[in-house]
Fold this protein.
Amino acid sequence: MAVAMASGSGGRASMVDQMVVHEKPEVKRGGSLLQQNEHFVENRTCKDVIWAILFILLAACIAIGTIWTIIMVFSFENVEGANDHQVFLKTHENTFIYGLMSILAAGLASAFFSIVFLQFAKRNPECVVWTALILGPMCIILVGAYLMTQSWPMPGIWGAVCVFVGGCLLACVIWACKDLVPLTVLLLRTVIHVVEVHPSMMALSAISALLALAWSLSCIACLLGSVIVDEDMMVLVESRASKSPGKAALVFLFAFIYIWGSLVATNTAHTACAGVYGRWYFGKDGGSPVAQSLRVAWTTSFGSICYGCFIVAVVRAVQALVSYMRAEAEEEGNFVLAILLRIIECIIDCVGDIIEGITEWAYVQCAVRALGFCDACWATFAVWCAASMNAIVGSCLIDLVPFLGASMVGALSGATGFLVYHSRMVVGGYNTTVFAFCFLVGFLSSIAALMPLKSGSCTIIICFGEDPDFLRRRAPALFEALTQAQIEYDADSSVGSASSSRRGSHQHQVQNQGGQARDVRAAPLMEMQPQGQPQGR
């Protein structure tokens, strides 16, 4: 079996020691990096500095462009001599001002409602997990029920189909995921407990959300400023990417800059939160763990964060360009090209999801062991392969909880921003646009504010795979649940082999011991493993 429990005083080989002698060279390389770099060393060196410098230069250019755009918008004295775009901006000056006020109100409301959601999740974790599970199917059923109240046969028939599909999905979700809820609830309670011990993590995440919001507005302002000054830029914006290489380059560049900055803002909070959870896990949370982790995220590990986000941003920008060209093909009626681009878009989306998932887990090692981005990926791969991390990740549904919270908070924040805008603009349009922007701001801000939930689950799981014994002392119930998930996964993956028969017999013996099951599951899994078995699959 690949998983073994480490004990500082018992003399048994730790999980990291097993990785160093693993049969797979990739795992061995990652294990060597883990062995050479201790947890939370005092004197850290900056990693991947060149990427931090590149991002800072880009941020400076975006800031200058934003200031220049603001000056251009509010310095039109002679409206008659201005071009059409300048006249539009001057005429709708109050709309822009009150629109920004409503967006700011949505951001503040998002922070408040996110805190309320965390408190509710603490007191009712089972309700939150089940709601997150059935939210999608229930939305399909409600949409179908609404369509059925309309005219028949259309769209009433589509409504009946939606109700049927939603009901089937709901039944499948309840049947397939009901056994995963207890582990998710235990993990959610542990994560929220750490947030309560270190509540300033919420402020840290809120700051990250504000930075992401500022970056988004700055990117839009820079694009708007270029359109104000240069009429050729407006012509380029109105052209088609499939016929204009300049327009395609503009779409890619804008998407890349926007995504890179937004990811850096959110992943600095993710890395800082991972540092806090790592210090809690290994019992090194004395002093000011939030301040220490934040300093690491914005200094020594900032280059690694920029590096990983750069890779993700390139892939997502290519996806955005392909999606834009696919939408143009659909408008032109070129369905063959649209289908081809849709296939390419799906492939790129899958690649992006894989890379984005790798970076999320790698940032934990950046926070805990001060590794560079590439080394952190090797270390994460080693832990993932050697410790059966897919068994735990596949048994946990906690990633659905932040999405549920962000959806609810986004709706409430959108309503708050809309009320602020409507109270100031007695006459005027753009109500739908304002609500959409406020909902988006509230949703993204809540995703960042609820970052501790995702960061905490990633950190606890990866640290458990590396050194489970610390979790036995910190959260015994969660330790037992995670250990049992690994035992069951290992038994299922080894069906048909001789070693599987011996492990299955031992597991059956453990389950028949009744009151002693708790102690056996807490025992090191190395002792459950037959001698001579290879350390990896």
